[in-house]
Amino acid sequence: MTDMKFLFSRVFIAFTVSVFSLVACNPVIFESVRKIDLKKDIVFDTQYGEIIFRLSDETPQHRNNFIKLVNQHFYDSLLFHRVINQFIIQTGDPDSKHAKPGEPLGESDLPYTIPAEFNPKLFHKRGVLNAARDDNPERASSSTQFTFVQGKVYTDSMLAVAENRINNWLAFSKVLHQPENKEIAVLYEGLQKRQTNPDSLALISNRIKVLADEELKKGVLYKIPEEHRQVYKTLGGAAHLDQNYTVFGEVVKGMDVVDSIARVQTDSLERPVNDVRIISAKLIKRKNY
C-alpha cells in the first residue's frame, strides 16, 4: 500500500509539473488569448464557403482583440450586414444575430474602441481586413465591426482622385486636432454623435472645410507610394481608405467566397436581401496556402 501511495504521489507530481510547464510556455497575454493563438489563422464558415485569414503582428491591439472575440464565439451567427460589390463586405454588428429582414444594421458594437494602428506597410489592397469606425478625429476603430476589402483595379487618374480624398481627410483631421480649434472640434464631435441638428452640423463642417483647404495650400500632400500604386493598378483594392482606417489582416484563402458574397442582391441600405451569415468562426492551424 505504501508503495502504491508513493507511486501515485510521483505520478501526480509529474503530471502537475507537466501542466504547469505547458501553461508557462503558453501564457495568457490578453483576455482569453494565449501566446500560441498568435500563430494561428482564423476561418469564417459561411453558406458560400470558407474565408481563411491571417491577422497582422504589426497591429497587436487589433489582433489581440479579434482573437479574443473569436475565442468568445462573438462572430458566430452574425450577418454580413453591408455589402458593396467591387468595394467591401462588412460584418461585426452584434444586433445582426437576431435581426429581422430589412432591419437597419451597422450602428452597434461593444462599448469600447481600439486606438488606430497605422503602418506604412499595410494598405487597402484587395483581400485585406480593415476596422470600421465612426467619424471620430482619432480614427479609433470599432471594437467589433470590420470589412473584407474586395475593391477594384485602379488607373492613374483614379488614384489621383483617391489621393485627393485622402489629403482632404488628413487636412480636415489636422484642423480638428489643432489647439486653437478645440472649441469647434468639441462642437463638431457633439453634433456628430447626436445627429439631431443637421443644419448646425453642416455649418460647422463647412467652417472646418474652409480651414482644411487653407491647410492643404500650405502643407505637404500625401502621395500613394509607387509600390502601392502598382498593386492598386494590378490586384486592386480601395485606395481612398488609406491613412483613414486601420488595416489589420489579410485573406489567405477564400477570396472567391468574398467575391460571391459581394455579388449578392442588396436593398437600399446595402444589406443583402437574403441573409448571408457567419455560421462559425474559429482559430485553425496556420498553413502555407
Summarize the model shown.
This protein is of the alpha+beta class and 289 residues long. The chain is 38% helix and 19% strand.
Layout of SSEs?
Layout: H1 2-25, E1 28-30, E2 33-34, E3 40-46, E4 49-55, H2 60-71, E5 80-84, E6 88-91, E7 113-114, E8 128-131, E9 141-142, E10 146-149, H3 156-177, H4 182-194, H5 198-218, H6 226-234, E11 247-253, H7 255-262, E12 278-285
Antiparallel strand pairs: 1-2, 3-4, 3-12, 4-11, 5-6, 6-10, 7-9, 8-10, 8-11
Helix pairs in contact: 3-5, 4-5
Could you explain the architecture of this structure?
It is a single chain. The protein has 289 residues and is of the alpha+beta class. It folds into two domains: 28-153 and 235-289, Cyclophilin-like (Cyclophilin), CATH 2.40.100.10; 156-234, no CATH class. It has helices at 2-25, 60-71, 156-177, 182-194, 198-218, 226-234, 255-262; strands spanning 28-30, 33-34, 40-46, 49-55, 80-84, 88-91, 113-114, 128-131, 141-142, 146-149, 247-253, 278-285. An eight-stranded antiparallel beta sheet has the order 5-6-10-8-11-4-3-12. A two-stranded antiparallel sheet has the order 1-2. The chain has a two-stranded antiparallel ribbon with strand order 7-9. Residues 11-22 have low confidence and may be disordered.
